Amino acid sequence: MGFWTLLEVASMPVLQVLIIGLVGAFLATDYCNLLPADARRYMNKVVFMVFTPSLIFSSLAETVTLEDIISWWFMPINIGLTFLFGGVLGWIVVKTLKPKPHLDGLIIATCSTGNLGNLMLIIVPAICNEKGSPFGDRNVCATVGLSYSSFSMALGGFYIWTYTYQLIRQSSVKYKALALEVEKEEADKVPNKDLYANPNTHLLLDHPEKKDHLAIPINPVLQDDDKESNLAIVSNDPGSAGKLQLGDAAAGKALSWERIKEMLHQILEELLAPPTLAAILGFVFGASTWLKNLLVGDGAPLHVIQDSIELLGDGTIPCITLILGGNLTRGLRSARIKPIVIVGVLIVRYVIQPAIGIGVVKAASHLGFLPSDPLFHFILMVQFTLPPAMNISTMTELFDVGQEECSVLFLWTYLVAALALTVWSTIFLWTLS
Questions:
Q1: Which of 70, 334, 345, 347 matches a 20 to 30 Å C-alpha distance to 294?
Q2: Which residues, by range, are in coiled-coil regions (predicted)?
Q3: Is the dihedral of CA 40, 41, 42, 45 positive or negative?
Q4: Structural domains in the chain (count)
């Protein structure tokens, strides 16, 4: 497959995202006004609660089996490594370039979370269908590639809706805390009219009648001399010290237990998020033959349910992309993100991560961890090279933090992705030939 053919294959899905994003941007302009901020917010909730879970469940239940899960055991590790290396590199970008605190999670997420879903579903079958593909028969390649891509999307969804979800959530907490702090500072700057209404009122605290009401002693019985003796008694009493230590220990245990309960509650809440729950159910139905036979296939008694779920899942990618384009119109006007931060994200995503991916896959293959299928090796390498996941935009909209900056980052990362995917796909194919 030649470079220009590969360029066309790799750039088509990215161009589709950009074209649909431009449609969303036009719909959100004041001229059209069909996709204002409230409409994008409500649409985003539908994507989060209905469309994304439907897409993940239908893909997993239909294409993944228990044997696949066992034989492809290295793929979840590989995806975990993309998140690990990307997260560490994103943290370095944050600490080095020092963006606004509430953007830390967004930048780390953009560096670590690749589009393991819809782009894989488009790129891999397209490469299989091209003449001269190095992966054998096009029909077999397309079928197997679809299974690999669906498995990648489901695993990616699990990582995204736990790790990345938590990153954006923490950014939202930082953003709200910063907003409250700014609001408090602004309130402190407002002069107290009651205090300065009369030039003599600043002596109010020294007024003899007010002194008795304002200066309330903690213990009126104890005078200065009595305080020292009382402190000495407390300090010399071994029982009191023991009571204090026991009290501190009990308080520490109670605090630790509260933290453990909060952490468990948070983990449970993330596991019960609709996309994560859909991924778990998809694995269960895909791994269980009799459950799969209930839903999947023309002869399945409940195949109409699977067809309905697939129909809902088909709306995920267009809706997310329209929302992203709508946010872009506001982001280009109001986003405040340093150009050097955008460059840092691009270097992490398209220079450092793909090079790490080649090393990881080659090492795993040398150690005998991977099946012999070169398409599987190619999928693992591509997972290190993809642009940021579209679900990041969903999360920023969900938590109302960094939507404009997310749109700007996505604009540049997806523009560069066409060339980066082409160059690195060529290198990957060369290393596997």
A1: 70
A2: none
A3: positive
A4: 1
Task: Determine contact, residues 228/222, Cβ cutoff 8 Å.
Answer: no
- Please give the Cα distance from 309 to 58 (Å, whole number): 6
In a domain, 315, yes or no: yes
- Decide if 247 is inside a domain: no
What pairs with residue 388 in β-bridges?
Answer: 114
Distance CA 357, CA 37 (A): 38
The length of the chain in residues reads 433
Looking at residue 93, its amino acid is: V
Confirm if 15 and 119 have CB atoms less than 8 A apart. Answer: no
- pLDDT at residue 279 in the model: 79
What confidence score (pLDDT) does residue 94 get?
93
Distance, in Å, from the CA atom of 88 to the CA atom of 142, rounded to the nearest integer, reads 34
How many Cβ atoms from other residues are within 10 Å of residue 7's Cβ? 17
Residue 197 is given by DSSP the state: S
CA dihedral 331, 337, 341, 347 (to 10 degrees): 10
pLDDT bracket for residue 123 (50, 70, 90): confident
SS3 assignment, position 112:
helix
* Tokens encoding 209: 């009648």
Report the CATH number that the domain containing residue 124 is assigned in CATH: 1.20.1530.20
Do the domain assignments include residue 34? Answer: yes
Tokens of 402: 């960094």
pTM: 0.68
- The better pLDDT of the pair 300, 264 is held by 300
φ and ψ of 114, to 5 deg: -90, 165
Angle ∠(93,99,101) on CA atoms, nearest 5: 110
Q: Running DSSP on this structure, what letter comes out for residue 400?
A: T
Structure tokens that stand for 175 in this block: 């953003």
Most confident of 273-277, 354-358, 427-431: 354-358
Q: At 70, which amino acid appears?
A: I
User: How many CB atoms are located within 10 Å of the residue 266 CB?
Assistant: 12
pLDDT digit string, tens, across residues 85-112: 999 999 999 999 988 888 889 999 999 9
Burial class (CB in 10 A: 0-12, 13-18, 19+), 293: middle
> Which residues fall within 8 angstroms of residue 116, CB to CB, at 6 or more apart?
79, 152, 153, 155, 156, 157, 160, 383, 386, 389
User: Which domain, by its residues, includes 10?
Assistant: 3-178+269-432
Question: Rounded to an integer, what distance in angstroms lies between the CA atom of residue 87 and that of residue 353?
Answer: 11
- pLDDT band at residue 219 under the 50/70/90 scheme: very low
Compute the distance between CA of residue 114 and CA of residue 282 in angstroms, rounded to an integer.
21
